[in-house]
Amino acid sequence: MTKQCICIISGRVQGVLFRDFTSRLAKKFSLNGTVENLSDGTVRVVAEGDEVKLNEFLLKLKKGPLFSHVTDVKTEWQNATGGYIDFKIIYHGILDHF
Hints:
The protein has 98 residues and is of the alpha+beta class. The protein has helices at residues 18-28, 51-63; strands at residues 2-12, 32-37, 43-50, 69-79, 87-90. The protein has a single domain (2-97), classed as Alpha-Beta Plaits, CATH 3.30.70.100. Strands 4-1-3-2-5 form a 5-stranded mixed beta sheet, covered by helices on one side. The chain is globular and about 35 Å long. It starts with a strand and ends in an 8-residue tail after the last strand.
């Protein structure tokens, strides 16, 4: 079944290639959606795809890349909207260009 999960990931998740890790992982699991840094230091992920693959994806997100330290993953489930055609990193502000 196709679902959507919206996650807010807390911990040391910015400046440690978390968005790149998430994007590569989403593509590996054939998921569509977005990942972005939020101003409060968390990362927001919206992912759509097969529910089994989404659950595997979430398990990997809870571990994160090598230099991250995930302390919490808040997840909200919804029906997929079909509004995403691939998986993209959303960039905001000057810090994202370094």
